[in-house]
From TrEMBL:
This is tRNA (uracil-O(2)-)-methyltransferase. A zinc finger (C3H1-type) spans 417-446. The keyword Cytoplasm applies. GO terms for biological process: tRNA methylation. Residues 417-446 form the C3H1-type domain. Belongs to the TRM44 family. Its EC number is 2.1.1.211. InterPro entries: tRNA_uracil_MeTrfase (IPR011671), Znf_CCCH (IPR000571). It comes from Pomacea canaliculata. It catalyses: uridine(44) in tRNA(Ser) + S-adenosyl-L-methionine = 2'-O-methyluridine(44) in tRNA(Ser) + S-adenosyl-L-homocysteine + H(+). Adenosyl-L-methionine (AdoMet)-dependent tRNA (uracil-O(2)-)-methyltransferase. Keywords: Cytoplasm, Metal-binding, Methyltransferase, S-adenosyl-L-methionine, Transferase, tRNA processing, Zinc, Zinc-finger. One of its GO terms (cellular component) is cytoplasm. GO terms for molecular function: tRNA(Ser) (uridine(44)-2'-O-)-methyltransferase activity; zinc ion binding.
Length: 455
């Protein structure tokens, strides 16, 4: 309670009460109502931003220069960390499902923290979605399953950070003894193989694997060493963990699968399975733990047709401009000077694609774009909507009226004024429909202004 009996403290007390009512209580009410995350455990242990920032800056200055390293990590025996206590994945993207695996295989005492963000499986994007759940919650369930297969008791909490992806998972305690490490290691690799096989839609369904059974010790009952390895690689860990050896051990269930054995709904041949079984699948094996995993480059390439050759851009722009001007539905408007200004007609995007040769289309596609992307990058010339292309009509007062509202805050238009040459002034047979002083673009090099970057 805040006392206001002392007159000298009345102003301070009033401010404190105001802060409690306007700031703290609404935040607590908001945090306690976050039922959509479906997280069983929540924490309200708050640390002030100022205190956190000071501590973070101190640790960064003290340990950063000689501890922080930047390098790609490929899940394999070469990238284990037995000397460390924690493996932390903070928005670790492609490595997110690998964090529990790396922790489990680094040492028996290693723990992990992971903050899932972008949805990635072991060697591809994660695209599954359970009915009645968001894809985010489905992905969190998958990452939890990975931790459980790796033998961790997975805990979940919600971080107090300004992000929509703020559910973290922690694995601190194991569900098995140190003597059972080799069993869990095989269980982990079987699960990885199963998930990696999911990426193949069409498989040869000629394989028949029979008489597969598990004893209470999770060993293959019969067969030679090679066939046992093959059967282990085929052993399927389903999404509800009921095919998991650990699940069977806890619930007294012995699994017996005959004839066609499926992994994630696909039937696999022995030839395909042999690619990932054997010593390469174990944590001490020489090969990677999953086929098809690729690390991301530390330099993200600029795409969306921004790196297409300027000569290609100019050629496509002029080709489309001529087609629009020659369209059957071409029209004319009155320019600001009172003269007629031919604004052309509209043509379908499909006809633009037919104009271009194969090499040009492949060049655009290589930049994660296409004809539509390139034309929209030239929005000061073309208007693309409804699958049709037409010229941007600068004869009207607002040529951008049909353009969707930008999500990002608008930039100061004055910073871009006369910093780019007017395309219509130099390329349209009727010139620009606007007078020079009313056009935001420069009518000639003498009007060009240096571009000013926003502060």
């Amino acid at each position: 309670m805040v006392s206001s009996e002392n007159a000298s403290d009345s102003s301070h007390s009033q401010m404190t009460v105001q802060w409690l009512c306007d700031t703290l209580l609404p935040k607590i009410a908001s945090w306690t109502s976050e039922e959509h995350l479906n997280t069983r455990i929540t924490s309200l242990k708050l640390v002030g931003v100022d205190r956190y920032s000071l501590k973070y800056a101190d640790l960064k200055k003290k340990y950063g220069p000689h501890l922080v390293q930047e390098r790609p990590i490929t899940p394999s025996a070469e990238n284990l960390f037995p000397e460390y206590d924690w493996i932390i994945g903070n928005h670790s993207d492609e490595l997110t499902p690998w964090i529990p695996v790396i922790a489990a295989r680094s040492s028996y005492t290693c723990s992990y923290f992971v903050l899932p963000c972008c949805h990635h499986d072991f060697n591809r994007r994660f695209n599954q979605k359970k009915k009645g759940e968001s894809q985010y919650r489905t992905y969190l369930t998958f990452v939890t399953q990975v931790g459980q297969v790796c033998g961790f008791q997975v805990e979940e909490d919600v971080l107090r950070i300004p992000s929509t992806k703020r559910v973290c998972q922690i694995g601190r305690h194991r569900t098995y003894s140190k003597e059972e490490e080799h069993i869990i290691d095989k269980q982990i690799q079987a699960f990885i193989n199963d998930r990696c096989f999911l990426k193949t839609d069409k498989m040869d369904q000629s394989v028949v694997v029979s008489n597969l059974s598990l004893t209470e010790n999770n060993h293959i009952a019969t067969g030679d060493a090679d066939s046992q390895d093959l059967k282990r690689s085929h052993y399927s860990v389903s999404s509800d963990n009921k095919n998991c050896p650990e699940y069977g051990k806890q619930h007294g269930v012995h699994h017996h699968q005959d004839n066609l054995l499926s992994c994630g709904g696909c039937i696999h041949t022995s030839q395909t399975s042999a690619m990932t079984v054997g010593d390469g699948g174990r944590k001490d094996g020489p090969r990677h733990w999953a086929e098809g995993f690729s690390t991301r480059s530390n330099e993200e390439p600029v795409r969306n047709c921004q790196q297409v050759l300027q000569t290609t851009k100019d050629r496509v722009v002029h080709m489309v401009f001529k087609a629009v001007m020659a369209a059957d539905n071409a029209q004319a408007a009155v320019s600001h000077t009172g003269d007629l200004w031919r604004k052309g007609g509209s043509i379908p995007l499909s006809s633009v694609v037919e104009m271009l040769d194969r090499s040009t289309l492949e060049e655009l596609k290589s930049q994660c774009g296409g004809v539509q992307t390139l034309l929209r990058n030239h929005s000061h010339i073309f208007q693309v909507s409804g699958g049709k292309v037409q010229l941007r009509d600068f004869s009207v007062s607002n040529p951008w009226a049909h353009k969707p509202a930008a999500k990002a805050p608008k930039k100061d238009a004055s910073l871009c004024y006369k910093t780019t040459l007017c395309w219509f002034h130099g390329n349209h047979p009727d010139g620009c429909p606007r007078q020079a002083e009313k056009c935001n673009f420069a009518h000639g090099f003498e009007e060009l202004r240096p571009r000013v970057e926003p502060k």
